[in-house]
Design a protein that fits this description.
globular; alpha/beta; seven-stranded mixed β-sheet; two-stranded antiparallel ribbon
Length: 229
């Protein structure tokens, strides 16, 4: 039985990167981006790690990342689905098999999460049942209509940008995802907190992380990532 299980998502194709290589397997200073995400969890107090990868990438992840770099906490590398929520649900089912009390769902293309963030998320989820890493926005945000005309300017002091990890009681997250998928109401789902709130009735607490906790999404992020390393 594992109290905390990290679910690292690595099944995306990263179309916005404009590369034939999925972004999580592109290299930063000679190592795949996914390596750094796994390393952060490996060095944390997380008990076990599940990696969710695309079907064609499972052997590569096992041999060229997990075995090559000697990651000991990785319990399984499993197949993802067509959409992010499918991959998360596969990971949650695997975490349930491991008897996890809590799950920490993290993007494999977010390589700069630090141990302090992981520790504070782990401590917080025990009392809140649901919490996610994030940071207050620094820019003024505009809401526009279909013609790109501004229709609202939200109060910036109430706005945060969501990051990962997103952490939950395992049963809460699993049951929420199961209800969502069975309902077919999956349109517009972009993160885990919205699923748990909509289908589990539990709102998440924001945990301040770091502006360095970027998701590598576009070519400029590779340059920024090199500098952060």
């Amino acid at each position: 039985m594992s109290e905390f299980v990290g679910i690292i998502l690595s099944a995306g194709r990263g179309k916005r990167m404009g590369s034939d290589v999925p972004k999580q397997y592109m290299e930063l200073q000679g190592k795949p981006i996914l390596y750094y995400s796994i390393e952060a969890f490996e060095k944390s107090a997380v008990d076990s790690i599940i990696i969710v990868a695309g079907p064609a990438d499972i052997n590569y992840v096992r041999a060229d990342i997990v075995e090559r770099f000697g990651f000991k906490k990785v319990q399984s590398v499993i197949e993802g689905g067509n959409e992010r929520y499918d991959s998360v649900y596969n990971g949650l089912r695997e975490a349930t098999k491991l008897g996890a009390d809590y799950v920490m769902i993290h993007d494999g293309a977010r390589p700069f999460v630090d141990n302090d963030t992981l520790s504070r998320c782990m401590a917080n989820v025990k009392s809140t049942r649901a919490c996610i890493a994030g940071m207050p926005v620094k820019d003024t945000i505009k809401v526009v209509n279909k013609d790109d005309v501004i229709i609202d300017t939200p109060d910036r002091t109430t706005l945060w940008m969501a990051q990962t990890p997103q952490c939950f009681e395992t049963k809460l997250a699993h049951d929420s995802y199961k209800k969502m998928i069975e309902s077919g109401k999956t349109e517009g789902v972009t993160d885990d907190a919205m699923v748990v709130e909509a289908f589990g009735g539990v709102a998440s607490t924001m945990i301040e992380a770091s502006y360095n906790n970027i998701k590598v999404t576009t070519p400029i992020d590779i340059i920024v990532g090199e500098q952060l390393l």
